[in-house]
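Regression test case RT-17, inverse folding.

Input:
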């Protein structure tokens, strides 16, 4: 599965952005779709995940209540709606797909990764 993330950019604190992640060539694999992020000098961290059916979603505590993950399997696309952005949300955001259902927050369980899209939030 080849993934491409887009929709990043520059936003002011309190604003919103929506990231998209599209699969090309084939449909998403059956495991979780996840979003991770990495800030300069920091390790990559889990942001959100969604099951194949969309019936289960999970969020990092730092984004809970502000970010919403969703998916449209007919379009092979997963979204991350980011509201009430904070400067600490500044990072490169990566989408990822598990081949089979694993631990949703563990990047080791994700086999396919997009190239990342930069999100910068100014105060």
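Golden output:
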């Amino acid at each position: 599965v080849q993934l491409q993330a887009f929709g990043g950019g520059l936003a002011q604190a309190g604003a919103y952005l929506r990231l998209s992640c599209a699969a090309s060539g084939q449909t998403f694999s059956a495991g979780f779709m996840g979003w991770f992020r990495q800030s300069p000098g920091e390790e990559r961290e889990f942001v959100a995940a969604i099951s194949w059916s969309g019936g289960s979603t999970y969020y990092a505590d730092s984004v809970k209540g502000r970010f919403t993950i969703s998916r449209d399997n007919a379009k092979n696309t997963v979204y991350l709606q980011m509201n009430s952005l904070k400067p600490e949300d500044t990072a490169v955001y990566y989408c990822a797909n598990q081949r089979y259902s694993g631990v949703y927050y563990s990047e080791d369980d994700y086999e396919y990764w997009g190239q990342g899209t930069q999100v910068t939030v100014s105060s």
